[in-house]
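Researcher: Here's my situation. A collaborator sent me these components and asked whether they could plausibly form a single complex. I don't have experimental data yet, so a predicted model of the whole assembly would be a useful starting point for our discussion.
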Amino acid sequence: MDFKLKIWRQKNREDKGRFVAYEVKNISPDASFLEMLDVLNTELVKKGEEPVAFDHDCREGICGSCGMVIGGRMHGPGKGSATCELRMRVFKDGDTIVVEPWRAKPFPVIKDLVVDRTALDRIMQAGGYISAKTGAVPEANAIPVPKPYAEEAMDAAACIGCGACVAACPNSSAMLFVAAKVSHLALLPQGKIERTERVLRMIEQMDEEGFGNCSNSYACEAECPKKISVTHIARLNREFLRAEVT
Amino acid sequence: MTLESKTPGGPIEKKWQTHRFNLKLVNPANKRKYTVIVVGTGLAGASAAASLGELGYNVLTFSYHESPRRAHSIAAQGGINAPKNYANDGDSVYRLFYDTVKGGDYRAREANVYRLAEVSGSIIDQCVAQGVPFARDYSGYLDNRSFGGAQVSRTFYARGQTGQQLLLGAYSALSRQIQAGTVKFFQRREMLDVVLVDGQARGIVVRDLVTGAIETYAANGVVLATGGYGNLFYLSTMAKASNATAIWRAHKKGAAFGNPCFTQIHPTCIPQSGEYQSKLTLMSESLRNDGRIWVPKKKGDTRRPESIPEEERDYYLERIYPSFGNLVPRDVASRRAKEMCDNGFGVGPTGRAVYLDFADAINRLGKHVIEERYGNLFDMYHEISAEDPYKVPMRIYPAVHYTMGGLWVDYNLMSTIPGLFVVGEANFSDHGANRLGASALMQGLADGYFILPYTIGDYLATAKFPPAKAEDPSFKQAQGEVEAMVKKLISIQGKRTAEEFHKELGRIMWEYVGMGRNKEGLQKALTMIPRLREEFWQDLKVVGSANDLNAELEKAGRVADFLELGELVAHDALHREESCGGHFREEHQTEEGEAKRNDKEFSYVAAWEFAGVGKHPILNKEPLTFEYVKPSERSYK
């Protein structure tokens, strides 16, 4: 298959950036989107040009490193998969594909398609944990968890921290990301003890980083590679309200 | 070089307890005066850094990723073992110890394996307290499943994402310590050397991957938690950035490398489909519980699988191993698949695949049951191959998955360089010649949460530390060497990319140092690898600058190290004139084609010492004795 590409190139944080057009030929429909970019990059290197920089690692949709806006969609067309899982067969031969980095103020571009998502780590550091010191814990089965709660906690905990929800949101909100962690821990008995502080600190940090608020567009859920539901945002709101009034 | 394993005496079930008591302690008020560097933030690194931070040490932790949560432990699917005996099926610490020593084909240190089994229960306790959402049954208690190489149900799991959930647990503990200020995290930094002062590991040299700055950091001790070297083969189930640079450069500074030829090939991966392919995707071992593996009886049969009648199919694992059938261990299943394809029975467009067929299971149990058990795996396969495994059999082929070898460590997890500790897959320790399923997560977390925090304290309490600062000449010298290497890589300006050299090396390794090895092939590899290395240093092309985010430059440095490590792996495989676990020498097999160990001559750990690039490495031996689990032939017939 042959494709025309329009890829965002930006030297560094300060550079204004621009789209550059490329062409790739003879791409196997079974190749992944990142493998298609590998082919392009090898050609660029051979010509002595700088390859397109992008974050990636596991290439099986779990590490959360990769992420780009492909044809206006987070992680490209298709539901429930990260950029690395996207296969070229979903495109038509001869398609023009526009590729951009995540666009959000709290995610400054480092280079080309690579953005700085450390704001998400700082939110986690503010309170996205249960304070269980190594060794100072009870026997595992001393904390039974009703199966439906455990399952729902797992649904939320599946978040890979890629930032697609932020990039998809018209307000650049990180509510789905924060909600996934708050909800995961609030559903479990182990997480109840610190629930008040946790939600307040995480929200405070989220605001400080410059993420916006939720206005119920649900774009985050639609673009989430792990299909994390916005019902977790409802739980986040409830946890927040509860914390505010207690 | 003398190898002192420091294995404590006494009965095996008392060794760790006694040893822990004998370890010297650092006074709580003094802990913050000691700085510990931890490189890598996977299960072993994150758990070690968090635990050391909680104890009060001053911890500096480094990753080439933007966030600690991106480490490749995140991709582990199946589960984590612990002999809790929740299933009431007769499990015990001793049984897990026994299974692991046997599964490793009697090439691991008994005392280490026993300790691993002993602390594994505490790992589950710890993870549950952190909020890891393990699978539960309707009572609300934890659920278990069975896994290869064991006859009890002792595997804890969180859907097909156990590694992710355990890593996020360790990451949350680490995040808490970062917030508390006991741990400082340095993102997008790649370790490029270890700094020795008076023979002790006292710091590291890193490259800031965004600015290109070469920086040095000083400490009292250095912990490497940098994972395995499976990417030596180019195509593997490893993440793209996983590399051997940290352990290899430590090796060149004096750390012995243990059993480098012990590499694990996982039998059920999605086969390669083209030259463009950048990695292989693992399909969980659990699929072999219900899938039947077969090839056509006729060579080069190109009919669609559904039009090949039952009597013209060869269910070869069931035929050769009537009692274990499709559930033989990983090494056996992989070798047989390769043999079938080598003999012309392979299927698919490349002929390098065998069928894994669920038709019988679907008929017997119904589609919904299969969907419930393996739904996410079937979806993943469908997405990658564009074939529906509910309708046509999957095509699978073995792929490099894990490396049992790694830097040699003593019972305290310290390498042959004083002050340099190695944890997780990066060390050689507990799996012998073959790792059992659901044991990698267990070892990474055992090392990080429950072993290293004690043993490193003993070192810090007893070693003498002359002042060492990042401005000292030894640091400046190491920094200068790294800068020179970076400059050299960029200045060659040849014609071939690092990726092309890596692929070429991978082909040599897979062909001659892969699943089946023989003297002639290994000797061939030993002439091909140095030749390729020479070409690399003459014809490498790296574009861009050293003062910028430059993925080509990063890759080039890693490939340069693989080109040296590959030779060591081949040397080790050539010298080990026996077959054991993942190391299969074709000259050493039983009449039925099974691995034939030579306990008399090879019951030892091969700990190799670096002698210079292209020079024959120096072999040191740590004899292995088996007081508790008596070596026997592994039979699965």
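Model: Some features of this prediction you could bring to your collaborator: The beta strands of chain A are 3-9, 18-24, 69-70, 73-74, 96-100, 109-111, 114-115. The radius of gyration of chain A is 20 Å.
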